[in-house]
Each structure stands twice: as structure tokens, then as C-alpha cells.
Design brief:
Elements lengths: L7 E6 L7 E7 L4 H7 L11 E6 L14 E5 L2 E6 L9 E5 L6 E6 L5 E7 L6 H9 L4 H10 L1 E2 L4
Antiparallel strand pairs: 1-2, 1-8, 2-3, 2-9, 3-4, 4-5, 6-7, 7-8
């Protein structure tokens, strides 16, 4: 029996005309730190969760040539840079939850209106390996299980 690596799941969808905003519609609801950063306090989907998928600002630190082009943010908070190293499979990215040791895998739909975030607690030092395995389909069953147990969290 293989060890479960990914323990949390969040599905974000583009539901408003706000340029970079994505609202959480489904979640396993078991990553309190992430959720505490994403709570909406005003406007659309108050009490729900949202984030932004944006171009990574140049002012953020990082080695030139190794910086991600995109990031997940909430307000002024950088949640994670989003690395997409394979242009042939550009609907899969990886990053790490800022301030933790947790790895993130992001899966995008073809029109970039859906972002699925899969979280592997404590795997920040293995995120490139996890990304490689995801590309090869190794975690397909694990991802399907997380999707199946996720609950609707949209409050809009």
C-alpha cells in the first residue's frame, strides 16, 4: 500500500469579472493555515475563500533565471510562486506554501478558469519530484479521491 502524500485539496474558479481573482468552490477543508489567509472580508463571496493568480512582481526576491513567472497571492501576501517548467504540459505547476514546509501542485484547466491546488504537507524539499510524478500520472487516484471527498465551500 502506497503512502498518501497529498492530504488537502482546493478548487478555485474564475466567477467574477475581477481580473485575477479565483473563488474557492470545493475543498477538503483541512488546511487551516491556508484558509485563514484566503477569507473574504468584503464584496463578493464574503466569508468564503479566494486568491489571485498573477504575474510575479519583479520586486520579489529570487535568483534571476530561476524565478517563477506567476504567483498565487491574497492582497499583498505571496502565498506561493507558481513554476511551470514544461511548456508541453503547461497546465501543471508547482510551488511551496510561503512560510511552511508544504509543497503545492497546481492543475489548471485549458482556459485557466479553474485552478486546483493539491497540498503535500512537509514535502517542500521534494516538490520537483512530486511535480514529475504528477506529470507521469502517478497521483491520479490520490487526486480523484481528494476531489471526491471535497465539499462545496462557495458562499457567494
Amino acid at each position: 500500500m502506497k503512502k498518501v502524500i497529498f492530504t488537502s485539496y482546493y478548487k478555485f474558479e474564475k466567477l467574477t469579472s475581477a481580473g485575477f481573482r479565483y473563488d474557492a468552490t470545493m475543498s477538503t477543508g483541512n488546511y487551516p493555515y491556508f484558509e485563514s489567509l484566503l477569507i473574504n472580508k468584503r464584496k463578493f463571496n464574503v466569508g468564503g475563500l479566494s486568491l489571485n493568480y498573477v504575474d510575479r512582481p519583479d520586486k520579489w526576491k529570487g535568483e534571476p533565471g530561476r524565478r517563477a513567472e506567476k504567483a498565487l497571492t491574497k492582497g499583498t501576501i505571496n502565498l506561493s510562486s507558481v513554476f511551470v517548467p514544461d511548456i508541453l504540459q503547461h497546465f501543471i505547476g508547482y510551488g511551496d506554501m510561503n512560510g511552511t514546509t508544504d509543497a503545492l501542485i497546481m492543475v489548471f484547466n485549458a482556459s485557466y478558469t479553474v485552478i486546483e491546488v493539491f497540498i503535500a504537507n512537509g514535502y517542500v524539499n521534494n516538490m520537483i519530484g512530486l511535480y514529475t510524478y504528477v506529470k507521469e500520472g502517478y497521483f491520479t487516484q490520490e487526486f480523484e479521491l481528494l476531489r471526491a471527498i471535497a465539499k462545496n465551500v462557495f458562499k457567494g
